[in-house]
Amino acid sequence: MSIRNFFAPARAFALVSFFALSGFLGSSGPVSALTAAATVRDGNSIQLGDVTYRLDGVDAPELDQVCIDDHADSWTCGIEARDQLAKLIGKRTVRCDDVGPEKSFGKRHRAICTAESDKASLNEQLIKLGFALAREPIKANVKPAATEAKTAAVGIWKGCFVAPQDFRAGKKDGALLGAACRPDRDKEIRAVLFPEELTMPPSCSIKGKLAVRARVTGNIGIYHLRGCPSYPATTKPDRWFCSEDDAQAAGFRRAYNCRRPK
Q1: Which domains are assigned to the chain?
Q2: pLDDT digits 0-9 by tens, 143-160
Q3: I need a labelling partner for 212 at 20 to 30 A (CA). Which of 39, 48, 49, 136 fits?
Q4: What is the pTM of this model?
Q5: How far apart are CA 165 and CA 14, in angstroms?
Q6: How far apart are CA 252 and CA 246, in angstroms?
Q7: What does the pLDDT read at residue 102?
Q8: Which residues are paired to 133 by β-bridges?
Q9: C-alpha angle with apex 105: 254 to 198, nearest 5 degrees?
Q10: Which residues form the TNase-like domain (predicted)?
Q11: Is the pLDDT of residue 24 over 60?
């Protein structure tokens, strides 16, 4: 037997071990698919276990966002979007297929999620009901549902609103969307959609302020926790958050003088 042939089995074993180890180490990243009981964080975020996914292709109103309905009354469309997603799920388990990282939402990943026994994804269903817009990047098949909802003027489309991304950025001159928008009432509508005193959603007491100085750290704003010196001094917050994770996912950093309350 030649020396080359003698060492061939050893080389093969080493290669198999290497790829097996690589696969093992690679598995420490985000799970490609996860099935579990779901907790709805907001209109486009679902938590399975300790993993929070953003529904791919879905941009729902934020929990603290206000819309105008078809009777010209303001309503908490972000809370309604969350409740609609929770209603679609009910008490069923949910499977989320990871489709990649979400660069704009912290460490979260995008996913196509489907409730047990459903054929259509939650991504598609929520947009079809009119409680979210289609958002890039998109791997979920939601664009036809988005067109259908807009044409039928259902959900938030029956009234008047600004795109969630414009609300998050405080872009008060963003395009007005929906069947009930009136050009002759532009100023009045924007005053409702961007009120001076933004109402705090239930159990969402973290204050967020958009701040140019936050851009130094790659953020768009700063958040303040209850019990911190900066909390009472922060009046008229631009955003309200339910958790630090939500605030960080939205691009806000904690105030430097603010430690986590004990």
Answers
A1: 33-193 (2.40.50.90), 206-254 (no CATH)
A2: 999 999 999 999 999 999
A3: 136
A4: 0.84
A5: 51
A6: 9
A7: 83
A8: 59
A9: 60
A10: 40-159
A11: no
